[in-house]
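Reply to dn_fold:

You asked what the input looked like. This is it:
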Amino acid sequence: MNDTNEPIDERSREVSLLAMSTFLWRHRARIGLCALAAAIAAGALAFAVRPKYRAEVVFSPVSGSATFSGGSLGSLGSLAALAGVGLGGSGKRSDESLEYLRSRQFTREFIERHQLMPLLYANKWDAQRRAWRADPPTIWEGVERFSKKVREITEDHRTGIVTMSIIWRDRVLAAQWANAMIAEADAALRQRAIAEYTRSLDYLKDEARSESLVEMQSAVDRTMESELKDAMVARTRDAYAFKVLDPAVVRDPDDIDTPNRPLIIVVGGIMGLLVGILWAVLRQRRVRRSAT
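and this is what came back:
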């Protein structure tokens, strides 16, 4: 049975392919016209849409310096916790720094500091009157839009390298915002750390004066030495929380992130091709019905 069916199936397949090829060739002009028209329309749409550019800054979150563990402090472990002294885990600070960069509060402060709301909602902003037209957006709506549509943060968990992208219509502003965000987040985290170290040192100084045991005074002194070293690092190190490996640069005008114009034209051409084939099939059916 199989020996007799295989040649028949092969011949029917060849006949089907031949019929399809003949059909496409007969209607090549109509199909080609649809494909060309759709590709031109897709290209016009792609070039009509205002392009967006991507500016990327590559950085590495800086881990905290080595700190005393609870075991080395002995009975002073609880005192160190009250003073705000780190009890180990150098990677914890880098994780917290990255979350601060993503945070809604820092994003809000950045938007307000650089007055980005009129840019984020340009269609609602009257530049001449310098006022909102109607239904002004809230700052939290701006934060949501910026976090979802403008800023992207991706982390390589294997290497710890982080890439922050700013996608915006103005390629110069995109690069400026990307570099400014890292610099301002680093500065804010530095000031926070200095304030915390100052409070911790004041607390430890008071404890050192009140403690009478030599062992406790020695433990306090060791803890103060660690805090002083961390405070000095926070004040003097260029990159406190984020070490920039590759700053954002202004992209070439032709280096567009969206829309992907070649892809849109190709997809438009394919859709036009399918529409052309469908048109040819319907036309052939109509001709056959009218002939009968």
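The mean pLDDT is 79.
Hope that clears it up.
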